[in-house]
Amino acid sequence: MIQVDAPGACYSLTRVSDERNVADRPWRASVGGMWDTIGRLQFDFLVSQGLRPDHRLLDVGCGCLRGGVHFIAYLADGHYYGMDCNQALLDAGRNHELPAAGLADRRVTLICRGDFAFGTFGTLFDVALAQSVFTHLPWNSILRCLVEMQAVLEPGGRFFATWFEDADGSHKTTSMTHDPGCVTTHPDRDPYHYQFSVFEDLARRAGLTVENLGSWNHPRAQRLMVFRHMDRPS
After folding, report:
1. Rounded-to-integer distance, Cα 101 and Cα 131, Å
2. What CA–CA distance (Å, rounded) separates 67 from 18?
3. Cα dihedral angle (223, 229, 230, 231), rounded to 10 degrees?
4. Model confidence over 167-217: pLDDT tens digits?
5. Run of H or E including 89
6. Residue in 96, 53, 60, 95 with CA at minimum distance from that of residue 78
């Protein structure tokens, strides 16, 4: 099932692809390449963190289902939910990537909107993931995402999110380049970097706790953190 609502501010990743042979799949280039590497990384990590087939998963900024093809094959039918502001990417995932992976008959719920209104799905989630979403958002948009997420997480649910880290706060007003990946980020424009303390403050304001998980072998040096309900941290 695909539902479409009025999109808000876009939060999809838009970068030049470094992956070869994408001429017949231009949507893969629009999400930055490394299709197989990053897609599989998301899946392997969440499974290592206890993702089960019976869990309901919310994939924030799911795009054309780079990680989605792995999750949909693993989860119980109908337990994958994706939100992205780019309808063309969602269509590419639904109409091309799923059939190519032999998953055309699987039930998935995809919603196109950019305001993080996760309540639109009408369900609660055991696990949520935002890969390469916060890297493109100012802090006030991140806060909105966290407030909306707090309302749809199961009591023991977890929300994993990636970001570019200014570990020691030495780049509060200057750009920095991350290794590996050679990605240059900025304190005041896309792509953003943040100190982890920013997320600690935002999580508290949203009624969540957050833990810095550090490196998870992301090829562009994005760090990982996990949010939980403040009154049920585990």
Report:
1. 21
2. 17
3. -150
4. 999 999 999 999 988 899 999 999 999 999 999 999 999 999 999 999 999
5. helix 87-92
6. 53
**Cα–Cα distance between 116 and 7 in angstroms, integer?**
10
- How far apart, in whole angstroms, are the C-alpha atoms of residue 34 and residue 23? 14
Contact (Cβ atoms closer than 8 angstroms) between residue 120 and residue 147: no
pLDDT digits (tens, 9 = 90+) for 80-137: 999 999 999 999 999 999 999 999 999 999 999 999 999 999 999 999 999 999 999 9
Fold classification of 2-229 (topology level): Rossmann fold (3.40.50)
127 close to 156: Cβ distance less than 8 angstroms: no
How far apart are alpha carbons 80 and 58 in whole angstroms? 6
List the beta bridge partners of residue 185: 176
Residue 26: pLDDT band with limits 50, 70, 90: confident
Secondary element (H or E) of residue 82: strand 80-84
Question: Any idea where the domains of the chain sit in the sequence?
Answer: 2-229
Q: What is the dihedral angle through the alpha carbons of 110, 113, 119, 125, rounded to the nearest 10 degrees?
A: 50
Structure tokens at 162: 């990636």
Q: What is the pLDDT of residue 106?
A: 97
Give the pair of three-digit tokens for residue 168: 């020691």
For residue 187, which amino acid is it? P
Alpha-carbon gap, residue 210 to 223, rounded angstroms: 13
The pair of structure tokens assigned to 77 is 């039918």
Backbone angles phi, psi at 197, to 5 degrees: -60, -25
pLDDT of residue 81: 98
Q: What is the Cα–Cα distance from 174 to 171, expressed in whole angstroms?
A: 5
- Say what the pTM is: 0.89
